[in-house]
From TrEMBL:
It comes from Lactobacillus delbrueckii subsp. bulgaricus. It comes from the Bacteria. It holds the Pfam family Aldo_ket_red. Transmembrane segments: none annotated. The active site is at residue 52. This is Aldehyde oxidoreductase. The record marks 78 as: Lowers pKa of active site Tyr. One of its GO terms (molecular function) is oxidoreductase activity. Substrate binds at residue 111.
Amino acid sequence: MKYMTVKGEKLSQLGLGTWGMGEKASKREEEIAALRCGLSSGVNVIDTAEMYGEGQAESLVGEAIKDLDRSQLFLISKFYPWHASPREQKKSLAASLKRLGTDYLDLYLLHWKSDYPLAETVKGLQDLQAAGLIRHWGVSNFDTADMQELVDIAGEGAVFANEDLYNLDKRGVEYDLLPWQKQHGIAFIGYSPFNSGNGQSIPVKASLKQIADKRGVSVHQVLLAWTMRTGQVLTIPKASSVDHMRANLAAADLVLTAGELAALDRDYLPPKSKQPLESI
C-alpha cells in the first residue's frame, strides 16, 4: 500500500469511496465485506457524505467499522452547502457522527460552494475543530481562485484538503490547482477515478488497452494506478464487492513506467491552459 503524509497524518493513497453504497438492503452484506477487506489490507481512509443516500452510506460505514480500532481510521464526511452556517454545520455533524457511530471526524468538508458567506462557514468549522468534534476541515469542488479566497480567510496551514474530480480523462486540475495545493501544503483528494459517477466512462484508447494487456491487468487498474502516480493524490474509488476491492488494492501497487505514462499523455492530453473546473 502506498501512503502519503499530510500535516503529520499518514494516509493511504487509496481511499474507500462510498457514493451509492448502503442504499440497497440486498447489497449491504457484500458492501460491508468490501469495506472491511480494504481496511484489513492497509487502507485507512474512508470518504462519505451526508448526501450519499441521505445518510445511508454513513450508516453502512458505521456498521463496517464498529468493531475496529477507531484511532487507526481516517474518516471523512461532507455537509451540504445549505448546511454551511455554523448552526446547521453543528446539526449536520451531530447526525453524521451518530450514523457513523463515532464521536469525531478526522476531516469534515463543505461539499461544494455555498451562497452562505465563506468566512462564516470557516468560523463554524474552526469552532467544531476547537470543540474536538473534527480534527481537520476542508472543502470539495473548489477551484484555484476559490482555494485562494479560502486561505485568505482562514490563513496558511488551516485548510487540510480539497476534493475534486480527477481521472485520466478529466485532467484540468493539473494546470494550476494541483501545483497550487502542493505549494500551500493542502491535500488533494481525487474522486471518480473511473469517471463513473455520472454514468459515463473513460474512452479506452490504444495506449490504455495496450498497457493493460501487456501488464495482464484490467483497464480500470491502469486508470487507478495512474491517479496515484505522483504520490500527491489521494484517490477514492468505490468498490461494492470484495473482488472489486481486491482489484483496487492490486492497482495501488501497480507502478507505471515513464514510457507508459508518456504514451497515456499522448492519448489523453494534459492541460496546456486553464480549464473550467469539472465536477459530478
